[in-house]
Fold:
Amino acid sequence: MKKKVLSVLMAGVMTSALLIGCGSSAPAAAPAEEAAPAEEAVEEAAPAEEAAVEAPEINADATGEIKVWVADNVVDFTNKRVADFMEANPEFAGFTVTVEPVGEGDAASNMITDVEAGADIFTFAQDQIARLVSAGALEEVAPQNAAAIKAENDPGSVAAATVGDTLYAYPLTSDNGYFLYYDKSVVTDPSDLDAILADCEAAGKNFYMEINSGWYQTAFFFGTGCTLAYDTDNEGNFTAANVDYASDQGLVAMKEIIKLASSPAFQNGSAAGEATNLAAIVDGTWDSGTLQEVFGDNYACAKLPSFVGSDGKTYQLSGFGGFKLLGVKPQTDEDKLNACDALAAFLAGEETQSLRYEAVGWGPSNLNAQQSDAVKSDVALSALAEQLAFTIPQGQYPGDYWSLATGLGDDVIQGNLTVDSSDDDIMKALQTFQDTCISYAK
Structure:
């Protein structure tokens, strides 16, 4: 079925972004062997020409039911924006839109389980896109509209919405990354990991980071220049693994993780609500409210710190950047597909992203929305923006990777790898990890 073009006007964008990701190293956008160390992978958004799109041909008598899945905390907001869309686009008056509370954590699994019964439009985390494409749960964005969407949003979010060379989703946010929250009455230098730990130890306070998580753990390995990425084909199948943890750079990263875990101030975790005696934590924007309550007037945020590795060199902690995306399910009815496309573009557009930030604090991926005074004055989003310049957009990873990474971190937490372990023993653990990662793409 040939896809029609959206009835949405895409405006031009500014050349700089508050929240900018590294699109070049995302497996979905480019071969992973092209990935550079995070600090070298930052792309600057190019000036965008005005991207006009044509209006679709609409059957005046078209009717249908459109089901939309969004997180519970944005159901009311989305209902309001749907009403705004219908008022502005009377050609879709024959369609009834129902918004249901299915968050991005569950939407992908539900869609894959039963595509036909799933939503017509749904939000999901970018790491699920390959599974959704493989399951036939995502309609590709019309090629005629891809240039406009790429121009409107930051490069990291666009890379996250891409599988192979095809754009499959509309970027919604660039706010799913991690950075440092700290108590500024305790931590005097948030830029240096050793200094943070020293301050925490002196104050008898805790520093939290989840080293047995495949998400947070990459901060060390990507920071030293390691690669861990998978190539996928246009159907979302894993075709190759590109990983070099069993290397000199990987050894430096692993030894720093072990050193961190040896500090009496260290606590493994990333949930602010479960942290105790807290002075610093590596966490994301979703916990900003909790941490403002915990730290009060001493609440502060910063990009992740740097560290001096076992080789005497200084490295900036890196890690994954994440994004929320909006997908449209393939449709057999051309009129319904046009309606879904137009509504999805509206819900992912500049105005809606700005209003959504004001309503629930989701950090926009839209370049113009990122330049608003409200977004730029948000302390947590500002720290994340600075950190995202050093991160790699999270691509597609096999499900087994996450449990494997947990095991690597658990070897440290359980004392199987310590500061007294030999380089050979540490390298052996990294080689096993690397070989297993590679096996997932065979």
User: Anything to note?
Assistant: The chain has 16 helices and 19 strands. The chain has a mean pLDDT of 87. The CA atoms of residues 260 and 266 lie 7 Å apart.
